[in-house]
Design goal:
With 366 residues, this protein is an alpha+beta fold. The longest helix is centred in the middle third of the chain and has 16 residues. The chain binds pyridoxal-5'-phosphate (PLP). This is Branched-chain-amino-acid aminotransferase.
Length: 366
């Protein structure tokens, strides 16, 4: 499909304005969905076709559909932001489109071209524009979270790439990730589980990675922690990332260090944007391996002043403490994180159109 075209079949039972307003007043995250979804079908013989916007609703899937058995599935996460003039924008969608293609190749799924990917977001947001929250203030970081995903739907129990695939986009209004302001989170360092191994699927945004992280997340919660951090699977020594967020270390001398992309780390759009904003702010970004020993020693000596995690959903989250079987390592002496807070504000100001967009990162959707 090179010319994106979606048949638009709107619902005749749209959510009533007062019900929608009630939802938008307190949407939480990932609990409510808009009135429509986008669907594009792929078959081995015909490629991508039958792009449509249709009412949101349950899928009909054969019980033998291969996604249900072998997890041939990928997804994306990206937000639509309403600006003060009412227009709706998204952030670096070409990065998500490229990552979606990378994920597709790794999972032996068909690649969707970038124009169709971006046009699918635009089609859904235009139809459901009334679902894009209008933040009442800067503190109210509400947005419409968009979830494109692709599943293997062929009815066949053999282990091989599906000859039938479906792509969908759904949308969910989202409040600020942190109610009542950003608070430092505690992190459990998993010693029983790894998230990704060399040659595996760590760089791909696939459901299987998340399924494999849930036991580690439970372990974190059993130890009173909010999130789990993973080390590399070979030496169990190099810090990689959290279950769904990348990591940054701020050094007192202005270095901004994040683990290098080695194939086992998800290439976050937020991560990439922070490297650029850090450089713009006069910090010295470094992408390189960082060991758990460097974290411990850096925090203890005061050389590391802040540690934070980042991703589309929570933007930037300061890390208060790292907990392991044997020890507790702090998140840096800078309580709550001055640099992290500053980068967070810069990123949000840009996304909500409150500052210049010097890198051309915004794309208008509606
Ligand atoms: C999605 C994701 C991130 C963050 O990526 P963003 O593009 O910044 O949202 C980080 N780690 C993992 C494992 C992810 O799935």
């Amino acid at each position: 499909m090179t010319t994106p075209a979606f048949d638009v079949r709107p619902t005749t039972q749209a959510t009533e304005a007062n019900v929608r307003a009630e939802i938008l007043a307190n949407p939480g995250f990932g609990r409510y969905f808009t009135d429509h979804m986008v669907h594009v079908r792929w078959t081995k013989d015909d490629g991508w076709h039958s792009g449509e916007l249709r009412p949101y609703g349950p899928l009909t899937l054969d019980p033998a559909a291969s996604v249900l058995h072998y997890a041939q599935e990928i997804f994306e996460g990206i937000k639509a932001y309403r600006h003060a003039d009412g227009s709706v924008w998204t952030f670096r969608p070409e990065k998500n489109a490229a990552r979606f293609r990378d994920s597709a190749r790794r999972l032996a799924l068909p690649e969707l071209d970038d124009e169709t990917f971006i046009e699918s977001l635009r089609t859904l947001v235009r139809q459901d524009i009334d679902w894009v929250p209008t933040p009442a203030s800067e503190a109210e970081e509400s947005s419409l979270y968009l979830r494109p995903f692709m599943i293997a739907s062929e009815k066949f129990l053999g282990v091989k790439p599906s000859k039938e695939v479906d792509y969908y986009v759904i949308a969910s209004p989202a409040a600020a990730y942190f109610k009542g302001g950003v608070k430092p989170v505690s992190i459990w360092l998993s010693s029983n589980y790894n998230r990704a191994a060399p040659g595996g699927t760590g760089f791909a945004k696939c459901g299987g990675n998340y399924a494999a992280s849930l036991a580690a997340q439970q372990e974190a919660e059993n130890h009173g922690c909010d999130q789990v951090a993973f080390l590399d699977a070979v030496e169990n020594r190099w810090v990689e990332e959290l279950g769904g967020m990348n990591l940054f270390f701020v050094y007192r001398d202005g270095r901004l260090v994040t683990p290098a992309l080695t194939g086992t780390i998800l290439e976050g759009v937020t991560r990439d944007s922070i490297l650029q904003l850090g450089r713009d702010a006069g910090l010295t970004p470094e992408e390189r391996p960082i060991s758990i020993d460097e974290w411990r020693e850096g925090v203890n000596s005061g050389e590391i002043s802040e540690v934070f995690a980042c991703g589309t959903a929570a933007v930037i989250t300061p890390i208060g403490e790292l907990v392991t079987e044997h020890e507790r390592i702090g998140g840096g002496s800078e309580e709550g994180g001055r640099i992290g807070r500053q980068l967070r504000k810069q990123l949000l100001d840009l996304q909500y159109g409150r500052t210049e967009d010097p890198h051309g990162w915004l794309t208008r959707l509606a």
